[in-house]
Amino acid sequence: MHIPRTHEPHEDGRQSWAVLVLLAIAQFMVILDVTVVNVALPSIGDSLRFEADQLQWVVTAYVLFTGGLMLLGGRLADLAGRRPVFLTGLAVFTGASLASGLAWSPDALIVSRAVQGVGAAMLLPSALSIITTTYSGHQRGVALAVWGALGSAGAAAGVLFGGILTSALSWEWVFFVNVPVGGAVGLLAPRVVARSARGGLSRGRLDIAGGLTLMGGLFALVYAVEGTSQHGWTSARTLGFAAVAAALLTAFALVERRGRRPLVPPATWRVRSLVSSAAIMLIATGILVGAFFLNTLYLQDVQGASALETGLAFLPLTLVILAGAHVAQHLLPRTGSRPLMAAGLLLAAIGALLLSWAPVDASYAADLLPGYLALGFGVGLTFVSVSVAAMADVAHEQAGLASGIMTTAHELGAAIGVAVLAAIATAGEKAMSTTGTVDGYGDAFLVAAGVATAAALVTAVALPSVRPEPGMAAPMH
To answer: Which long-range contacts (CB under 8 A, 24 or more apart) does 314-318 make?
Structure first.
């Protein structure tokens, strides 16, 4: 099969879709790893003899390092070259996936997951910036819409694939599956992806001080929130780490204001479409990934479902995310991004509200499926419209930075969403009794519904709207 090079465009100026296909596969693999381990956690805990309070770090370590280093990865892609940074991130991620599957102890697995996050932090923003700078006009809108759809579907599909791999093979395969995929992408990328215009750091320096203070601040913030389920919101541990986070993030702001080549130039925060889209991305991802986490526990611990049954239960949710994304692609040129974001968030709120009413003896079809469908369709609408709106006013040379901001919002949304909803679900429950679990489940989804509703109202009245040219967001054939 002949794969055309991206620097050999078609006669009408269009670029080959091979770039989008290859990078979308890499993105899907990385996003998948946010949720793919959820269903496998009980098996991992039994096999490696995790302590109960350690197991959550199999998920948290990955998300923390991905989100904490994402902006640095995006800026590195702009300065050092997008293709070299993408290939380096892919190699790190693939190697760490192999190490995760071969892990012999809890510490070994947690460290491997953290290294996976480092690779993802380089891979994701560089891949999105390659897409943004490779395509233009109609093709750019199509590519961004597909990227947004796969980002949301990857998180949903992770639970399904995790159930299948854990049941059919073993928990190790939720990590091993990345190795052949990453290897294939790595072999094809040098041929498919054109060389970046920037070949080195001669045009700028990497803001290490800014990157470290930002990473440290975000790490401390998520660590503080993540521990509230065990220690409470007003404990010395929570307040201490929150204070550390505030201090480091303040230091980051000062470094950026005074630095000659800041990681995030102050003018970036005045790009309203980018900043508002990042906020919506954080909220929508937090609700979606938090919903996967809580429903995984609910289905297995309360309903007694197997890993495979749990994965299959999320299949309709995955499909309606794709359906919502498909609808959004067609509606964007006519409605603009703001109505779709508001409608998507409102549907997500309705879905969360429906899930909050699930009883102990819930029927899947009557009590869970309607909530899954509303939540999934709403997230599909939201993710695509946000992905297009975020990059609308971003300069070409800042594509990597903007990509880093959006993917940071995605990963931190996942970490904060799981931490906050889990803390609410277990608040005041020292023993996870069946009744207590379901009561907490309902409380968490009521809060999620309230947050999504508030975000929908703010979006409808205050956020800018991007209206692509007709056909710009049409589906890729």
So the answer is: 314/156, 314/159, 314/160, 314/372, 315/160, 316/369, 316/372, 316/373, 316/376, 317/156, 317/372, 317/373, 317/375, 317/376, 318/153, 318/156, 318/157, 318/160, 318/376
